[in-house]
Amino acid sequence: MKKGSNLLLIGIILFTIPLPRNYITIQQLYYDRMMQQNYHLQNVSHRETHLYIEDKGQFGIENIGFVSLYDPEQSLPTTSENIQLVDAQLKKVGERGIFEQTFSFYDQVIQLKDEFPLKKASDPLDIFPSTSSSTIEIKVNNQLIPSFAPVTFNPWDLSSGRYFGKLGLLLVEDYKSNTESLVVIQGTDEDILNLEKLNWQFVWISSDGQVKVESFNNTERKDFPYRTAFVNEANVTPTRLGYKTEGIMYYPTYFDPFVYPWLTTIISLILILIGLYRLFSKPKSSV
């Protein structure tokens, strides 16, 4: 065996092992770049809505909060006159609580409503359950959108964190069509161990009032990159999802991805180059 062939073989083996992972990484970067060229995405969040509870158990909204827009390209949230939280109501109807929020997007009116059971307790502060499950009623300009699957939420939370991981609002600017839409994104109540069972619903609301409903499962999500980009940016997923994979279910560490696959690939290329050099270099002639 010629000198250098062992190094070349080892380098090729080391280069081949992380190839699938490197391919996924390159694929992710490619689609990320494509989405950045096609869309400007801003996560719509709202906070500072507070409730009051009286001694006799009556409750309601003390003050209405405000909307913030989170742009991944900016460090601080911004606001916009085009989208506002204009009303919030918290009511007691029999033994149930009803929470309704009203947003304005240009001249369009979007309402979100959920219901939850109230507990019987001597202390009024204990009448709200820690969690509850309900379908989220969505209306656009008083048009009822077909209901989606029930989701688990926190009745105490009156901010956008109420439906965290299950429902989110995303402001989408489409560079190609030069249009702006508000997308209400809702996902099913699945955890990280059941990604294959995930389903989503997009309710597209254009600035001129056109409404489109789009439903798809996890397999169909991978057919169109914008679906993955939207659910990730709106945080309507139990974990960050890959464009063509089930999910990226890890947090970066020194080993992953720095040692594997990046450092492994670099070392393999160095070994391949050294092996090729030794394999094809002419031996020094002895005098």
Polypeptide structure, described:
The protein has 287 residues and is an alpha+beta fold. The protein has a domain at 41-240. The chain is 24% helix and 34% strand. The chain has five helices and 15 strands. The chain has helices spanning 5-16, 19-38, 218-221, 225-233, 258-280; strands at 39-47, 50-53, 59-63, 66-70, 83-93, 96-105, 108-117, 132-134, 137-140, 143-144, 151-153, 167-174, 179-187, 199-206, 211-217. The strands form four sheets. A six-stranded antiparallel beta sheet has the order 4-1-12-13-14-15. Strand 6 (96-105) and strand 7 (108-117) form a beta hairpin. Helix 1 packs antiparallel against helix 5 (258-280). The longest helix is centred in the last third of the chain and has 23 residues, at 258-280. The mean pLDDT is 89.
Give a concise summary:
The protein has 5 helices and 15 strands. It has helices spanning 5-16, 19-38, 218-221, 225-233, 258-280; strands spanning 39-47, 50-53, 59-63, 66-70, 83-93, 96-105, 108-117, 132-134, 137-140, 143-144, 151-153, 167-174, 179-187, 199-206, 211-217. The protein is elongated.
